[in-house]
Amino acid sequence: MPLSVQLQDREDFEVRTLRALGGGAAAGLLAVAASRMHIHVDAGFFAVAGAALAGARTDWKVRVGMLLGFPVLLNLPDMLYVPWPLGEACMGALAAGVVGWLGTKWKPRPMQVVAGAVGAGAMVPLGLYVKTVMDARLFDGRLGAVGAVLGLTAVALFWSVGMLAAHVSVHGNAVEARGMALEKQMSGEAQGLVARAVTLYRQCQKETARLTAGPGKSELVGVLEKMVREVFALAESHTELETQLRAVQQGDVDAQVKELRAKAAAATDSVARRQLELAASSLGEELNHLDLLGRKRERLLAQLHAQVALLERARVSLVGVKGGDVASKGAQAEQLARKLAALGQEDSGAPAPAPLPESTKVMS
Question: What segment(s) does the record annotate as region Disordered (predicted)?
Fold first, then answer.
């Protein structure tokens, strides 16, 4: 199965990048002030520390701790006489590791934190090289305010872009990746059902991994994938309906209908009364539509429960099969796949409820 690569929490990355640019610009102004007081300026340290402090999305206590700890932590490569550009890369990696661990709204996995630290560290020397070229070609080597701000902002940009690796998630199973992404987009009861479906699918995968390769196993894997994909499709439809219903407050529409009808009853002009009645009737049709959407949402949720229960039955059927027997007889895997497919057809073939009337006007 091909790998699935996803970008997680893009909004967090975009916000941190913009804030890191501001931190790099502020660090440039601070570097100018320090140079005018004849204080040694380490452009890499100022840019990385400024970007990390500004880009970290955490409370003030953690930020103060970072402010006090960075002068020691980020200068460790220099203290250990790590040569350039490895020293600058280590400095960027240390800062990115701290931000990835403490300064994000979402919680990346340890390997993602490491990937972000490596990516940011690798980009710092490149950012410093770009700054050197800018100083030589544009600012003639002078550490003016404009040159310092643009140069350190460029370093901060490269460092922040390197942290994009912390937001990349690679899955070996595209179906599981889709379920995890969908789970993060949902809330409430549907989210719990999707999470349960993902867990059941993982358990089913472990059970099918015991089977010997053959047509029966391939058919079984395909049936399981189809079952869990149906769960995800139902969950997506349910989420769309939830979004539509949240966009409109049914109580407000009902109140408007009552108000328009009251005005129509009190109107003395026949034309005005007719127009108010037409407006109330139009809103009444909107109430009917909202009611239909609400009923459809309930049905989708019920179908979602049923599909997850079906996946649970599939897991129980897989667990009940003796591993040794299946390994020796691939026909049993094929038989189990057909049994699960029959369960799915039986569930989808259940008689559908009677369609809702299209014009049950809600006029009260």
Answer: 343-364
